[in-house]
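Before any further analysis, backbone shapes were mapped to integers, which produced the following:

***
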Amino acid sequence: MNRFFLFIFLLVAQSGSAQEIRKQLDLMPKNEKEQLADFFEKGLHAGCFGYTIFGDKPVSLYVHKGVDVDSIKRLWQKCVEQFKIKNFVIKFQDSDHPRYHFIYLINVKSVRTIIDTHKTVFKNSLDGDRNILTALLDDSVTLEAALNHHEALKGILLGFGINSSFLFHRKTELIKKIKAHVNPPCAFAQSLFSENDLQMIFGGRNGFYKNYTKSEDCVHISPKLIELVDEYHALEEVEALNHEPLSFYGLPEFVREENDPEVQMLMNKYKTTREQIIQALTDDDHLGVILCKMAQ
């Protein structure tokens, strides 16, 4: 009986909180409310924000195009304080292009859970012990720097699974090694890295052997380079991308091995979460629903 009354109490408390949030939203200036709503709609559509808000995907990334990111940052901070949002953090990062910004939505509870679940993987992949969550929540530290620029760890936090994340990580490492291994005069310095080089090495194994190995400018193709290229293309042959019908709330996209049980489990979970997102957002007031969920 006590549990029943506790459930009713929590239900009423959440309902009251939701009503208060909606009242405060009604008092928000129209232009601010529209800008915030537009930001979250884009994050839901292009950044998989819904899977982090309504599911347990630890982190989602939305690449924002525009110069108005500072105003969005101020609006978000206003929401955090006004609605007492504690479990969600939005990390704003600059990119190499002034008009593009990386915006990471972080579900703190889910990040803490996945780091704890895979603590051996994180510890072995980083130099020494570090408080990853503290670094992730530090505005002065990029998400990549918090993870020591380790692509697999980033993939795990983005909800791509252990196997898929390390598959992508190995590919990025191979690309670095291939670029570093090609001898002058075909050294892969940035200034010498041509589109032809890209197509011949990374465009397919046949292209590499038919074109690159016969290039008059590259007289030395070492066995080690051939070994690296072979491994790179072998990985490409086992990977796949999602082939789902187009949907406003698309499933998370990531490089993956087609028949990996972990991938199948993740995709089934994300399909279930997508149904929950669609159900939750049947209300026309998407912003109110989103902020109520984030404030729980």
